[in-house]
Amino acid sequence: MKFSQLATMAIVGLAVSVAALSGASAQDKSKPAPSATPAAATPASTVQYKEFVLGDPKATVTVIEYASLTCSHCANFHKTAYGELKKNYIDTGKIRFVFRDFPLDTWAMAGALLARCAPGDRGSKLIDLIFKNQDTWIRSEKPIEPLRGYAQLAGMSATEVDACLQNNDILKTIREVQNTATNLYKVQSTPTFFVEDEKVEGDRGYEYMAKVIDQKLKDKAKK
Questions:
Q1: Mind giving me the DSSP string for 81-108?
Q2: Residue 133 in 3-state DSSP?
Q3: Is residue 187 part of a domain?
């Protein structure tokens, strides 16, 4: 899905749009590769942005995904390829996988906020749930309602959901991450992956991603 000029303009106003939802309901190779430093989680009363990092923190190869929760290609990747990557590369400690939000619209931003607010390690699971059910919730008359329901399944109370949708600090950080991806790493579409310094645009499937990862693992082993 392309990140168009229209989408850029729309996201400028997301701070107001996403906050209103709660009340209404009750890499370019000439540039350095994106870094992946996890941020510590904080108590629910002072929720802060946290990086989603899976796998061995000492893995020699890092894979970073930039995705929008309303992107059908992103959802397809998570439904078809991600499970195999997780089983064969993340869970085995071969790679460290980082998920970063690149929201293309208000609903993607709302979902991103809720995932970042989810307690403990449930944020990544909430992202999987949102992608798995994308065809259903995105076509709802009020998409925010199923999103709120998914967040509550992840352990958030209705009050915490409301507070999360108005958390301007997390929203600002998501936008900063997205702006960095756009301006520094030249991300123009979703999903976009970085396997170390190699940029992979679009859902290329498991076999393609595995081939790129295997080559990076071989290169690292030679050093």
A1: THHHHIIIIITTTSEEEEEEE---SHHH
A2: coil
A3: yes
**Structural domain span for residue 63:** 5-34+45-222
Comparing CA positions, the residue from 164, 72, 82, 149 lying closest to residue 119 is 164
* 31: confidence class by pLDDT, cuts 50, 70, 90: low
Q: pTM value?
A: 0.83
- Using only C-alpha atoms, the chain has a radius of gyration, in whole angstroms, of 17
User: What's the number of domains the chain is made of?
Assistant: 1
Q: Look at residue 165 and tell me if it is in a domain.
A: yes
Give the other-Cβ count within 10 Å of 137's Cβ.
21
Q: Tell me, what amino acid is at 183?
A: N
pLDDT per position as a tens digit, 178-211: 999 999 999 999 999 999 999 999 999 999 999 9
Mean pLDDT confidence for 63-81: 98
State the DSSP code for 45: G
Residue 104 lies inside a defined structural domain of this protein: yes
Q: Could you read off the pLDDT of 123-165 as tens digits, one per residue?
A: 999 999 999 999 999 999 999 999 999 999 999 999 999 999 9
Residue 27 lies in a domain: yes
At how many degrees (to 10) do helices 144-153 and 158-165 cross?
120
